[in-house]
Amino acid sequence: MPNLKSLLPALLLALPAPIPADEPRLVAINPALLYYQAFALVPTLSEGDKTDLFTTDWRGRPLDPRLEPLLEGHDNAFKLHLQAARSTAPCDWGYDLGQGPDLLMPGLARSKAVAQVARLRFRWHLGHGRQEQACDDYLAGDSFHRRLRNRIEAWPRPATPIASWVHAWKERGPALRLAGLALLVTAFVWVGIRTQDHGGSAPAPALVAGSPVGPLPPPSLAAYQAAAGGSFEALDDLLSRQLRATAAGPAFATHSAGMRTEQLR
Fold this sequence. Notes:
mainly alpha
């Protein structure tokens, strides 16, 4: 009968190899797969809930407390969106663009809903003092819309109504940012995150050279609206360019170490 000493080497070989604590996870998963999984985790909404989330205009007024359970119900879906944003694998949606106007894109309608919920979740987090979670939701939503838009940009220009809408979306580029994601999100990025980073008294840097609006005023949403002439479209464009032109990007990169800096450029 073999003794314990002779069995010890075999037992050691049978043990599973230890996994380093800092080994990255999910970096090689196709982000599109995670996005499709996130779609499946979106809660079922009543018609009233859809009205509150997607139809009611919450700009310029506080979010109603009844939105809280609706936004909280998207937590698991946004966890997957954040995991997808951290993935370094190519995002392959599996679309055969060779089908032209006949191509079905089931994720497109859902993507608009994601953008609207991301915008409200950002405000909701900031309203409860959760600036890190607000930052994560912004990064997840921004990465998602970039990956979707980058795939659609390869589509040739067909002559169907939906394709015309997609082409108009493409032509406006970052100023549209998928259903107006940047309109309030970027405003609260600047007001909530950058102001905190600089003690609330940082001077606002200038916009891109040649901008018609000149230097930005102190960080407040009202000041942004005044600089943009009060126009919804002008404010959207102003805030979108501001995010790319200022030091807001490194502040996000510092917070979210798992994010790739190039996602913020």
